[in-house]
Amino acid sequence: MPALEELTAAWEHFSRDPTFRAELDRLLRDYVGRPTPLTEAARLAARVAQGRRLRVFLKREDLCHTGSHKLNNCVGQILLAQRLGKKRIIAETGAGQHGVATATVCALFGLPCEIYMGAVDVERQSLNVFRMHLLGAKVHAVKDGTATLKDAMNEAMRDWVTNVGSTHYVLGTVAGPHPYPTMVGELQSVIGREARVQIQAATGRLPDACLACVGGGSNAMGLFRGFIDDPGVRLFGVEAAGEGIDTNHHAATLGKGRPGVLHGTRSYVLCDDDGQIAEAHSISAGLDYPGVGPEHSYLRDTGRALYLAATDQEALDACRLLATCEGIIPALESAHAVAGLPRVAAQLPDGASVIVNVSGRGDKDMGTIAKHFGAEVSS
Amino acid sequence: MTNAPVPSTSRIAAAFAKARAQGRKALVLYLTGCDPDFETSRRLLLAAARAGADVLELGVPWSDPSADGPAIQAAMHRALAAGGGMAKALDLCRVVRVANPEIPVVLFGYANPIFVRGTAKFSAQAKQAGADGVLCVDWPADEDPELAQALAQQGLDLVPLIAPTSTPERVKAAAAVAGGFLYYVSLTGITGSQLPNLDEASVRVQQVRELSGNRLPVAVGFGIATPADARAVAGFADGVVVGSAAVRIIERAAGEGRDPVPALEKFVADLRAALGPSLESP
């Protein structure tokens, strides 16, 4: 708790400190590669518009250094950790994108880095494990529980409480105890701020809708924050329906979960009547989380955002669709957002424009995707 | 300044008062409920009481025990595999209470199983099962008083965890809503870690007593694995909590296909002997 209070106070102070902001902005520009483009996807729009006029814009977080939006958060948190005098960085990771992003910034700052990753994820994301090793990080395969993201978070928390004086825990999403949901949301809000300016430059007005995938929910929150106070902009999140939300193999926490407490957050969780956390399932390791950021729970309950779910198969199909229509291979996480697009488009008026967050690129998923399409690749 | 806690009428207070009257420190023993199965767990809890544990902490198995080290994580997974959870932990508490009307039982667990039941319903169920107190690792009582209030409604004690990093304000706030005893965590870390240098813990325990107005006894846990550890901690604490070391005995016996009860009973008796004058004859 004192570590969280220290972090809260530090974030409140430094996030308003002009010197800190300037350094963060410089890193986002010169290292992360911001602003990322907003790319109009006309061929994709034609495919999903069902004969009506629709403009689709892709927010290209896949073009960030390391291949996903995760770096936005890591740069900010590690800059903060440096201000706090922390000498060691730890993080959890699901798909490995957050682990790679953390390891990357640690290399940049010369800080020792240890990453906790579920043993199941280590297996299915071996390319990212190697990337982390190459960046000088130590990767711990967590075998406890379901050996996925939630167990990696448990283990990272165990490490943090043990080494709390020396270590900063770079939590990768808008979940976990306060101040993480607030801090990570603010660090990712650069996505929405940029998109807001870019869409107005492109269309002369705000979009009708924003669409993003939701696991813990950081890329969605980053985009939503740019438009949350504009009631005319509808917000849509797409959760992972896995093998279907009526099976036991999905990660649709907002769609099928109930209020609970996990990782220091009161939010929707997937759990049974006894309170045991359920095993989440998704083809994309980054959405394979039985909890969700508390702000998403709030947006769901207030009706400000709507949450859909896309199955593994729908995500794979959407991945192929975006690849063949636009020449962009999205991460399987981001493919869930694309998969939700036809359903969102059907709810929008003729002539509408919509922003889809392409939170990451698909290189890391080639093995998984190839397997489902019956091909074999060596990575 | 005296360290004497203000006497209370609860079973937990009575157990600490009795130990004190016998010129020794109280032994608090943690076991994960339903580890390795319901019936063996029932026998283990009763054996621990028989062998001299003054207070039982009945660990409620949870899928995501983020404050626990490998020994208790493994115990929870054994227990969950055997059908354990909050519902079974309450059943277990009930059968232990029937067999032993005196031993204080603290339900020790995580927030979600309590939260999904609702605090009022859970507190009523815990009371009905014969529990005396509740320790919830990830429910900060000073941030959200709902659990403390619901337990108070049923006359159950809320036992708080106090860490080496807890600020004086937080110690005071936690103690203000606490009952039974205060659980001081000997280290910054997880259960089952190595016992640290005790000089700091000794100083901190005295501070905790003073900050809480000497209202409750202070037990120390995390990292106490042997009778010698227990004796060392008893030099400055009112009670000594042993958990992971007891759980490892069960793990070893289960792994070898032996009944864990005799080994656990002997371990508890050794701990108890290390804490002061021998058991009074029945």
Structural write-up:
The complex is a heterodimer of chains A (379) and B (282). Chain A has 379 residues and is α/β, with parallel strands linked by helices. Chain A folds into two domains: 2-31 and 69-184, Rossmann fold (3-Layer(aba) Sandwich); 34-67 and 189-372, Rossmann fold (3-Layer(aba) Sandwich). Chain A is built from 16 helices and twelve strands. A six-stranded mixed β-sheet of chain A has the order 1-2-12-7-8-11, sandwiched between helices. Chain A is globular and about 60 Å long. Chain A starts with a helix and ends in a 7-residue tail after the last helix. Chain B has a single domain (11-272), classed as Aldolase class I (TIM Barrel, Alpha-Beta Barrel). Chain B has twelve helices and nine strands. Chain B has helices at 11-21, 38-50, 70-81, 86-99, 111-117, 119-128, 146-153, 168-176, 198-211, 227-234, 244-255, 261-274, and strands at 26-32, 55-59, 105-109, 133-136, 157-158, 161-162, 182-185, 218-221, 239-242. A nine-stranded parallel β-sheet of chain B has the order 5-4-3-2-1-9-8-7-6. In chain B, helix 9 (198-211) links the parallel strand 7 and strand 8 (218-221). In chain B, helix 2 (38-50) crosses helix 4 (86-99), helix 10 (227-234) runs parallel beside helix 12 (261-274) and helix 11 (244-255) packs antiparallel against helix 12 (261-274). The radius of gyration of chain B is 17 Å and the shape is globular. The N and C termini of chain B lie far apart (35 Å). Classes of the chains: A alpha/beta (379), B alpha/beta (282).
